[in-house]
Amino acid sequence: MFIFLIDRYRTLLISFAFIVSFVIVGIGDEIGSYFDFWSYPHQFLVFTHRFNAVDFSVMPVMMALTYQYFSKWKPYLVATVIMSVIICFIGIPIFVFWGLYKLEDWNYFYSFLVTLLMFIMMKMMVDFVNNRSKKR
Question: 83, 62 in Cβ contact below 8 A?
């Protein structure tokens, strides 16, 4: 789906946003799993416990597409809050209900704050690299 929605004129930039999102989500997931804030009782990919399909496909795509469609900071922050609410107060409870995600020492509001932080960090990093590349 990402392939069909990506802006063809900014393919490199949006792909970079996806990669940065992938890394940020991966680091956040590792930290949370390491400190037993949450766990994954069932994996989509059974041959590895490191790659959860939701964290490593859905989240980076949502983050990259949000970056693509809302390039200015104010609309981006509004979209980030909306996306974080959807992810943390609708998406995560569904995965908890299905037994794919288990909150150990964590709650939905913490997820909301961390998701906001991940979105903001991604935009800051991608904008920094993009601005530096334009100066050359």
Answer: yes
Contact 100, 54 (CB under 8 A): yes
Q: Which range of residues forms the domain containing residue 70?
A: 11-128
Spatial CA neighbour of 83 closest among 131, 21, 41: 21
Instruction: Tell me the Ramachandran region of residue 36: left when phi exceeds 0, alpha when psi lies from -120 to 50, beta otherwise.
Output: left
Question: Model confidence at 97, in pLDDT bands (50, 70, 90)?
Answer: very high
Residue 107 lies in a domain: yes
Q: Quick one: how far is CA 126 from the chain centroid?
A: 14
- Interhelix angle 11-34/108-135, rounded to 10 degrees, is 140
Beta carbons within 10 angstroms of residue 54's beta carbon: 17
pTM: 0.87
**Opening angle at CA 31, ends 28 and 34, nearest 5:** 145
Which amino acid belongs to residue 98? W
> What is the number of domains present in the chain?
1
Query: How does pLDDT run across 11-57, given as a tens digit for each residue?
Result: 889 999 999 999 999 899 889 988 999 887 766 655 555 666 666 67
Token readout for 61 is 């795509």
